[in-house]
Fold Extradiol dioxygenase.
Amino acid sequence: MAIASRYNVGGVWLPRPFKIRRLGHIGLTLEDIDEGLRFYHDLLGFKVTDWYPFEERFPEHMRKPQFRDTKTVFTRFAGDHHSVVLLNRPAHAVLEPDPSRRYEGGITVQQISWQAGTLREVVNADQWLQDQGVATQRAGRDMPGSNWHSYFYDLNGYINELYYGMEQIGWNGVSKPFAMHYRLFEQRPQIPQMSEYAEVNEALAHGIDSASGYRDEDGEERYDVDGVLLARPFKVTQIGPLGLFVPDVAATAAFYQQLLGFRLTETVTWNGLECAFLRVNTEHHSLALFPLAARERLGLSTATTTAYLGLQVANYAQLRAARDFLRSHGCREVPWPDELSPGVDYAFQVMDPGGHLVRLYFQMDQIGWDGAPRPKRPGVPDEWPEVLDMDDPYLGPPFLGPLG
Ligand SMILES: [Fe+2]
């Protein structure tokens, strides 16, 4: 596909009218939301920012007692209102009126959400993607979370989202009150829009209590985490990369490169299967693509096409502590071949209750101006040392704010 035009994106000519900056959040579907919360909230430390009962969107006669808990839960690890959203998979499969929004065929991620730089980029992208023949789903602004967005499908049916302006949770840990959710949009907005600061002014003038949003509780703070007491011995500091199994790695990589502006960092051939690692910023990869045949060779469940969700923790000592902590809480560790982990050395994988591998690591190689990945470091030993002798770790953006 030849894309001949160029677009002024914030004063710079680019081949498309937007630039993806990072993986922002992801929606995961599970059979049991309470089990999901035990894993993501209790064990991994994600805090709930908002939730709503999915079934309440439907008339009484459509509700099914077998879905004992249909709430959709928004969780965060930092200021972003949500980084991981948990949704009830069986309830969506039965109740969702739009078949394209049900989770079938092994797609168990509900959305893969990429942050753009500005609202103008999102608005222009929504039209541009349509013009390129991409199947778009909807545009506007959802609540909770307040982010402006354009939703569309990749060639495999994965729902991607391009968004701007995620609500930020501040020092008091309180989300935006539901009474402020009236600035919801169900179509592509006209721009310019009022700022969020002006929205807050408006809400205050209407007498809305700005402190009346949701505030989560956490467990007892028993662990000294690098000088701060926390309820678990580590802190998740970043979400991603995301790994997907796809029928055609080359075609999928071409979609993300040509339409969304990803760059191919490297390909890896493993057992004769080609895998692709794509980036959107200086991180070695934000998206890893593996052929479906690799899923079988890896011995993973055929119930999901998600290969893994990466989560970064603050440092190596915390990664080791996280491993011990999750093991001691009964999490099943799953091996992952070193060859399929370019750019990331020390990492381990546990299974979430929805069948998704969650891959914890502490640092990823950064790619510079020349686009060349670092030569592969020596393999990770079976027995992790207590202290690493590693050249130039902890690159990339720092975690902002306190660990807890
Ligand atoms: Fe989203």
Remarks:
- The domain at 7-218 is CATH 3.10.180.10 (2,3-Dihydroxybiphenyl 1,2-Dioxygenase; domain 1).
- The chain has a mean pLDDT of 94.
- The chain has seven helices and 20 strands.
